Amino acid sequence: MSKRILILFTHPRFEKSLNNSLLVNQIPASPNFTFHDLYELYPDFNIDVDYEKKLLEEHDIIIWQHPFYWYSAPPLLKQWIDMVLEFGWAYGPGGTNLQGKLVFNTITAGGQRSAYSKDGYNRFTIKELLAPFEQTARLCKMSYLPPFALHGTHRLTKEEAIETAGQYRKLLESLVNDHIPVDQMQSFSYLNDWVINQNL
Residue 185 is part of a domain; what is its CATH number? Predict the structure, then answer.
């Protein structure tokens, strides 16, 4: 059975981001995918909470897609989390509307993958730095998957970026076709690695 996937895209300067454009262009043209550009819809940060809740209820898989700004996300995504994931709706007594849904981050980061390690330049892994997102998902009784990441955006060749974007498309196709071995996916640091391991 096909899954419905909501891509919550948050980039304040999307028109200047070649790498995010490459990723976005890999989203299959299918009614099972909803590409939701938060900065396009809410340039004034005035989020329509009821509309956002309805979107979440209508989809099985949620993707937070954003550049990795200062070890986190652009401010509009934080605003979205603060306003939409309300007590009594997303968590707490009666807050079961997101229970069982899958969620993960798709990020672009300027640093190389090797920079995100205990001994690397940034001292922490991507998984450790994304812990607030993982705990948010767990609080809402969602299943959190490892991130999909396009690293080294300042030094990538176009061919390397295109290769990673192709991996993203394979991941999305696998998800929408309900090929989602959650436990196996969670054993990898990145969903990129899972895609490569599967020879998709």
Answer: 3.40.50.360
Other CB atoms within 10 Å distance of the CB of residue 14:
15
CA atoms of 110 and 177, how far apart (whole Å): 31
What Rg do the C-alpha atoms of the chain give, in angstroms? 16
Q: Are 84 and 49 in contact (CB under 8 A)?
A: yes
Report which secondary-structure segment, H or E, holds 172.
helix 158-176
The helix (run of H) or strand (run of E) holding residue 78 is helix 75-84
Dist. CA 95–CA 44, nearest whole Å? 28
Distance CA 136, CA 139 (A): 5
Q: How many domains does the chain have?
A: 1
Tell me the HSE value of 57 on the side-chain side, using a 13 A CA sphere. Answer: 12
Q: Distance between CA atoms of 149 and 70, rounded to whole angstroms?
A: 15
pTM tops 0.90? yes
CA distances from 69 to 11, 37, 52, 78 (A): 10, 17, 23, 12
What domain range includes position 92?
5-198
pLDDT digits (tens, 9 = 90+) for 53-101: 999 999 999 999 999 988 899 999 999 999 999 999 999 999 999 999 9
Number of C-beta neighbours around residue 141 at 10 A:
15
Neighbours of 149 (CB within 10 A): 22
